[in-house]
Specification:
single chain, mainly beta, 72 residues
């Protein structure tokens, strides 16, 4: 996995995170926490979408933290 794609839809109030190519999506599954899991043909989660997402403050943009772990 080289890239993560994050999409904030302000009109639809969703936050979508793709962990792999969106074209690999085969099935979606909604959880009880208003999160939709997008899966590939093997059942592997390749993305998720948070429904009814609204930022908690008035800051423009979306802050994303990256943590890289090298080793166990």
């Amino acid at each position: 996995m080289d890239k993560i794609k994050v999409v904030h839809d302000m009109v639809g109030q969703t936050l979508t995170v793709w962990l792999d190519d969106p074209l690999l999506e085969h099935v979606c599954e909604e959880t009880n926490e208003e999160v939709i899991l997008m899966k590939d043909k093997a059942g592997r989660v390749i993305g998720f979408e948070k429904l009814h997402y609204t930022p908690t403050d008035t800051q423009k943009g979306l802050a994303v933290e990256t943590v890289v772990q090298t080793g166990p």
